[in-house]
Amino acid sequence: MRLTRMACVVLAGGALLAPAACSSDEPAAAPPQAATESQTPAPEPTPPPSHPFTGAATEKRNPVLAVKIENTAAGKPQMGLKSADIVYVTQVEGGLTRLIAIFSSRYPAKVGPVRSARISDLYILSMFGKPALSYSGVQTKMIPFMQRASLFDVSDSAAPGAYQREPGRVAPYNLVASPRKLLAKAPDATEAKDIGFVFGDAPEGGTERKTFTVRYPAARFTFGWSERRKQWLIWQDGKRNMAAEGGQLGAPTIVIQYVKTTRSQFHDVNGSYTPLLHTVGKGRAVVLRDGKAYQARWSRPNQRSGTTFTTPDGEPMPFAKGQVWVVLAAPKPVAP
């Protein structure tokens, strides 16, 4: 028979009962501390993966669009560069330079001035898989190379509806394109993937630098660190490199990648040779980030692989998160 609380009190006077002989109808509450200790903390949310071109946290992997952009005074200010993930600076005929802007994270309303393609572009772009390439014209001798290249042709002749002439500018420096219309003509363009870039905190070492200058035979770039903007602001030929959208162009990371530069089989209408930039192989680099210059090495085994950057000790060289400019320069300026 079950004993009530009162019965236990009475029986306790006549006999010594075992502690378990009498119990309350209500179970005893667990000590508050024990209950707290038994709770399992909620798991930390898993952060989204980082974008392979910028290191930004995002799960999006949009198609890759590359655009050839004029880079002389006649074509400035350029449109859309602020939205690019990566900007390549390449040498062309006469010792001048042009840009290859790589878009995937976001697409501007318009980009330009769009100019012609070069043989070195095909070697650079192959690491992105099969991207869409926006350009205006190519040498006749290069047409077979373009047809065999790993890219979707969205030039002004292949996708004329994506281009327009910008009022107030003079041809050929007034051709601009709509990235979304370009990509509509290349629905199968490769989505952003790993191309060898690593992002993270700056490594130990580095040399404090306020400015860093790269010279081409007929162009000069100076990168100046802005502590306020946390970017390397860009000057070209002694003038601030301004964006059509407003403000000076700049990026958290500038990579000066020294590459062998030779004469290709192509020439322009004036007889100046087209440089061939050897972006497959190994070489020296300087990485500018956080107000410092870091010595580095680059390696790219083949055309399909990405380009990795390492410290002199062989460790991955991390970039600061955000836009990256890759300045492809000869170890010594090559005469035009």
TrEMBL record:
InterPro entries: DUF3048_C (IPR035328), DUF3048_N (IPR021416), YerB-like_sf (IPR023158). SUPFAM superfamilies: YerB-like (SSF159774). Transmembrane segments: none annotated. Residues 42-51 have a biased composition (Pro residues). The keyword Signal applies. It comes from the Bacteria. Residues 23-57 are annotated as: Disordered. Residues 23-41 have a biased composition (Low complexity). Residues 1-23 form the signal peptide. It holds the Pfam family DUF3048. Gene3D superfamilies: YerB-like (3.50.90.10). This is DUF3048 family protein. It comes from Thermopolyspora flexuosa. The lineage of its organism: Bacteria, Bacillati, Actinomycetota, Actinomycetes, Streptosporangiales.
